[in-house]
Design a protein that fits this description.
transmembrane; 22 helices; Growth Hormone, Chain: A; 80% helix
């Protein structure tokens, strides 16, 4: 009897062992299919979708670009000359609207999809543009600025997220970089249009503002032809549409590859959410802060975003014409185009380098460069004869310090645009799938709340602490950000969104991500070696 029981027990053990082997083989096959689909070429449709959605970035860029020229050309069009505090108000109130718009987008993006909040952004942006262009009093202009902010915030929250979710792993960085390049293109075009209408007496600034109503209309029309994010479709159980979307993105993939990708997305969602797919916003937000790995991921993304704003870049966009007029340039609006042009050109540099050299390596170099440029600019301002109370030159001759300030600002913008400007928005890839919309909302809220601080305090800070003190403060922020990047920002280029979720289960995952990328690289080389 004992012998029979032992034999039966041995048979059961063998069956369990065989079952485990079959599961391992199945997992290996699925992983191979998943790896294979990520090595296939991205379709033209995928690039066109990324470029279309990136028009949302143009809205942000055009807004930050035209306000610089409007502030120096608006004159008494609103009934009186704008004071320093009123200039800060009309500049920062857009960021306040963007903060509200980002929260709205984050709340509805998971329930209604990624496209709906983008449509809403287009509508309110057009309304806000019309309110501004037709304004003859400060309150209406300020309301228009706030309404435009609603659209900017909604688009800025969802567009990078949408692009990241629809992009193949190998091209994700470059595709999201399209969004930032679109931002910088918007800033450049707005600066150029603003400089052109600066010579139109009276209400030339109104044309600069009104032209901004065209891009959201174009985006709304083109977005109709774009599919919903495949991850969003899987999350809502629309598997056939998800596979059709994946076929558009990976046209050379097989059915098995696409099914493996869908199962990977589905497993990732179920692993993280369990039975809480329809949990409340409060529970989702609570889970972000009570789940250590998720909290670290969201903190890292938000910290990089804060660096991109508190480092001082947007003061140069919002007040560039004012700033260059302050240091003695006669045609400050035209000089501001140089800054916008540099910003655009180096966003293309980021587009080329971000997937090749990785996010972490680029951030380590560029953020340190930003700190050095701000520090040299702060020293140069010390030698420019500026009355801190009135922010006016005490004498007309400024000489080499003004040239040095211009050079430092251009170099700073080059470092910013080729690094943190884009990577701050690529940071949505760090956030786990099940909280990605809310996490992206927090990331965008970080963007706009810090943007409000910068936009509403720059001129006042220049008066209170002198230009040298203000730029020295920004240099300190950049240096602190550089230290944070060294300690907390893992390199995740070359990893799938599902693999990235595992990185922050190992602290901030700097070393783990490095090892994971190394293993993936070796695994990719094995099939090639076998063929040889």
């Amino acid at each position: 009897m004992s012998t029979i029981n032992n034999k039966e027990f041995k048979d059961v053990k063998d069956d369990v062992f065989i079952d485990k082997l079959e599961k391992v083989d199945t997992f290996s096959d699925e992983q191979a299919e998943l790896d294979n689909i990520e090595t296939t070429a991205a379709s033209k449709a995928a690039w066109l979708i990324a470029m279309t959605v990136s028009i949302g970035g143009f809205l942000f860029g055009y807004d930050t670009g035209y306000i610089s020229s409007v502030l120096v050309t608006i004159g008494t069009s609103l009934g009186h000359e704008l004071s320093t505090s009123e200039q800060e108000l009309v500049t920062s109130i857009t960021s306040g609207g963007a903060l509200v718009g980002a929260v709205f987008a984050g709340l509805v993006a998971d329930k209604y999809g990624r496209k709906m909040p983008i449509y809403a952004a287009c509508v309110v942006f057009v309304i806000g543009t019309l309110l501004q262009a037709a304004a003859f009093h400060l309150p209406q202009f300020a309301i228009g600025r706030f309404v435009v902010g609603l659209g900017v915030g909604s688009a800025a929250c969802i567009c990078p997220l949408f692009i990241a979710e629809i992009s193949p792993m190998r091209y994700r960085g470059r595709m999201v970089a399209f969004n930032n390049m679109s931002v910088t293109l918007g800033q450049l075009i707005a600066s150029g249009i603003g400089a052109g209408f600066a010579h139109v007496k009276g209400d030339g600034w109104r044309a600069t503002v009104a032209i901004g109503g065209a891009p959201p209309i174009i985006l709304a029309v083109l977005l109709y032809f774009c599919p919903e994010s495949p991850r969003q479709l899987v999350a809502h159980g629309r598997m056939e549409l998800a596979e059709a979307c994946l076929l558009k993105i990976y046209p050379t993939s097989t059915t098995q590859m696409r099914q493996a990708k869908i199962r990977s997305i589905e497993a990732s969602i179920h692993e993280q959410t369990g039975s809480m797919a329809d949990e409340s916003l409060w529970k989702t937000t609570k889970r972000i802060f009570t789940t250590p790995a998720t909290a670290r991921a969201v903190f890292t993304a938000c910290a990089i975003m804060a660096i991109s704003q508190l480092g001082g870049f947007n003061t140069l966009m919002y007040y560039s014409a004012t700033l260059f007029g302050l240091v003695g340039f006669s045609n400050a609006t035209a000089v501001a185009i140089v800054v916008s042009g540099t910003n655009f050109l180096f966003s293309i540099v980021n587009l080329v380098l971000v997937d090749r050299f990785g996010r972490r390596a680029i951030l380590k170099v560029t953020v340190l460069g930003m700190a050095i440029c701000m520090l040299i600019a702060a020293v140069s301002f010390h030698y420019i004869p500026i009355n801190a109370k009135t922010l006016e030159l005490t004498r007309d001759v400024t000489g080499w310090p003004a040239i040095m300030v211009l050079i430092c600002i251009i170099c700073y913008v080059a470092f910013f645009s080729s690094g943190v400007a884009t990577i701050a928005w690529i940071g949505t890839e760090l956030i786990p799938t099940e909280v990605r919309a809310v996490g992206t909302m927090l990331n965008t809220v970080t963007c706009w709340s810090t943007n409000i601080i910068i936009a509403s305090t720059f001129l006042s800070m220049m008066k209170a602490f002198t230009p040298s003190g203000a730029f020295g403060f920004y240099a300190g922020i950049c240096l602190a950000g550089w230290i944070l990047i060294i300690l907390c920002y893992p390199e995740v280029s070359g990893l799938t969104l599902e693999e990235i979720q595992d990185v922050f289960s190992h602290g901030f995952g700097v070393r783990y991500a490095k090892q994971l990328r190394k293993e993936r690289k070796l695994a990719a080389q094995e099939p090639a070696n076998e063929k040889i």
